[in-house]
Amino acid sequence: MDEDRLNMEIRKFLKHVGVTSQREIEKAVRHAQETGRLAGRDSVKANIVLTIEALGLRHEIEHDIAFG
Prior knowledge:
Blueprint: H1 3-34, E1 43-52, E2 57-66
Antiparallel strand pairs: 1-2
C-alpha cells in the first residue's frame, strides 16, 4: 500500500465533503432564516455520519453551529 497516495485520496475526499457540506449548510440556514424557522435560535445541532461499509467503519460527529 502506498501511504502517500492513500493520504492524498483521503484528503481529496475530505475536501470534497467539506466544500459541498458547507454549501448545503449555508443554503439551509439562509432558507430557514428567510422562512422564520430560526426565530429565537442562535445555533443548530449538526450531525454527520461517515461510513465505509467495506471497512466496517462508522464514525459519527456532532457539533453545534452558532450563527447568532
